[in-house]
């Protein structure tokens, strides 16, 4: 709720904000996913933005993860895992081969 209505880049320093804004603009204009890596608070982060449509409205999904965590790593931040479990949005996490690693309750309800 604290982030609602704020720019996605708001939590980054000036350099990071500019990079995130450019990432989002690139993904939106090209209509294709885009990725970058930045350093924030001394940590390397991998960010990706993927365009999609919901009810005809063009949107972007922004993913931020520590760059030292592999795409197939089952672990992650406990706070992030809790958020995924509690969000009303349907979320499924797959590995790089497309195999489901985790599906939250909202996703399971959506799929029946």
Write the layout of secondary structure elements.
Blueprint: H1 14-30, E1 34-40, E2 43-54, E3 57-66, H2 78-86, E4 92-94, E5 100-103, H3 105-111
Antiparallel strand pairs: 1-2, 2-3, 4-5
Rg? 15 Å
Mean pLDDT: 80
Please provide the ordered H/E string of secondary-structure elements: HEEEHEEH
Number of strands: 5
Structural class: alpha+beta
Residue fraction in strands: 25-35%
Annotation field: number of helices: 3
Please give the share of residues in helix: 25-40%
Measured between the Cα atoms of the first and last residue, the distance is: 28 Å
> How would a crystallographer describe the biggest sheet?
3 strands, antiparallel
**Low-confidence regions:** 71-75
Biggest sheet: strand arrangement:
1-2-3
Overall form: globular
Provide a compact summary of the structure.
By secondary structure, this protein is an alpha+beta fold. It contains 3 helices and 5 strands; from the N terminus they run H-E-E-E-H-E-E-H.
What labels describe this entry?
112 residues, alpha+beta, 3 helices, 29% helix, globular
Give an account of the 3D structure:
The chain is of the alpha+beta class. The chain is built from three helices and five strands. A three-stranded antiparallel beta sheet has the order 1-2-3, with helices on one face. Strand 4 and strand 5 form a beta hairpin. The longest helix has 17 residues.
């Amino acid at each position: 709720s604290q982030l609602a209505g704020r720019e996605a880049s708001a939590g980054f320093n000036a350099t990071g904000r500019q990079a995130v804004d450019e990432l989002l603009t690139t993904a939106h204009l090209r209509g294709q996913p885009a990725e970058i890596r930045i350093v924030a608070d001394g940590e390397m982060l991998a960010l990706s933005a993927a365009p999609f449509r919901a009810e005809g409205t063009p949107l972007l999904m922004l993913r931020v993860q520590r760059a030292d965590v592999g795409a197939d790593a089952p672990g992650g931040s406990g706070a992030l895992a809790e958020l995924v479990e509690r969000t009303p949005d349907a979320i499924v996490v797959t590995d790089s081969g497309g195999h489901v690693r985790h599906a939250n309750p909202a996703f399971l309800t959506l799929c029946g």
